[in-house]
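Justification of resources, computational component.

The compute hours requested in this renewal are based largely on the per-chain cost of generating structure records like the one below. Each record pairs the submitted sequence with a full structure-token output. That output is archived, and it is also reused by downstream analysis tasks.
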Amino acid sequence: MEALARLGVDLYPHEFARTHTVDELVGTFGARSRDELELERIEATTAGRILAIRSFGKAIFLVISDGRSRLQVYLRQDSLPERDFQVARLLDLGDFVGASGRLFRTRTDEFTLWGSSLTFLAKCLVPLPEKWHGLQDIEIRYRQRYLDLIVNPDSRRVFEARSATLAALRAFLDARGYLEVETPMMQVLAGGALARPFVTHHFALDMKLYLRIAPELYLKRLLVGGLERVYEINRNFRNEGISTQHNPEFTMLEFYQSYSNYLELMDMTEQMLSEVAVKVTGGEEVGFCGHRLSFRPPYRRLAMRPAVCEEASRRLGRPVEERECRDLKAARALARALGVPIEPAMGPGKITAEIFEALWEPQLIQPTFVYDFPTEVSPLSKQRPDDPDTVERFELYAGGFELANAFSELNDPAEQRRRFEQQLRQREGGDEEAHQMDEDYILALEHGMPPAGGEGIGVDRLVMVLTDSRSIRDVILFPLMRPRKE
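The structure output for this chain reads:
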């Protein structure tokens, strides 16, 4: 760097005008033959990061990249201004340079830019990871994502697929008359899901605020206001453990449709994910963790309690009846017999849900709807007319974990108050994830909300499946990490 400065080189110039990106040159002209390039004599100016340098005295070969494609640049002493060649001798791996020249093919048929000028653009002061083996250290890949993107092309492809997934979800909903909206991420009450929130404080108003765990209650207020189809793609925050499937900050798509219900949303979800898979991967089948998943409709459908009885019967070698999932004493006994850990405050509905997750979740590889949940674990869902202990709710599983959660929305303010009061009793019993009372939301319902269906889709998990990524950290650019120990 000091040697470049002595030459009068601007180490960090303000701009550089390109005629083409590296990717554009490779994509547009990379297939041309030697004779075609010689005949056309295509002039170009491009720029990128140096990933390789080979020096042969009076000739230097560089490989530069724009992060998407790579291009060889040939620099000859007799073809460059004297100072440009002096600069070329001082280059390091990782430096950014711009080059102008004409395209040709070398004697080994390498597509190359024969440089007529060289411009220094930025200095790399820290050695890049070893180029042949990429960046293998998982912690460094997550902690210093920029290095991962420089040397691991597959990582860039994952995040391009993530962007394509978001675009495809938006296009699907926009085409069906949905309005994209934004709702508060700091809330007076953390509602819309059963989870432990992050807490912060607003000093000017001297009030406690929560980072949202879900946008649901605000989106349903919009249904009250007459916006019949709304959706939001944004961050949720949950103060819980970190795993291959969980990050405290994650991206959700939530959408709500007036005059709809959970059965209609099942059909819509099948169509949505089929279209998204085709747009992102080119087909309805994707590879994930050694399996071939098909997003081609229709998907398998399992009612929760009958599914629990079926698998419990198989494992215990005796018939298990649905009443055992509805009676507290019998549900506790069933959980003990199956070796499923439960908490003393859990009711039969919560115990049934725990048993289902333990017995079924790992084997739900192909897209599967699990529907008709216990009312106890669904405080915002509408009950089935023929069974008050069951709500019209489904979760979509694929790859062995939950991708989506949806239900027919509870719009009876008196019943909603009763559910919140039940959640408060669970909270007093030690359940920190139980829902709080939200008087303002009940007031909104008292103004009248039409029948509706609503759904949330975990975008990060969906991208995991579509890109065959084993961990949620692989699909989040900057996942939460502990501070590095010095």
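The domain at 2-128 is CATH 2.40.50.140 (OB fold (Dihydrolipoamide Acetyltransferase, E2P)). The two ends are 28 Å apart (CA to CA).
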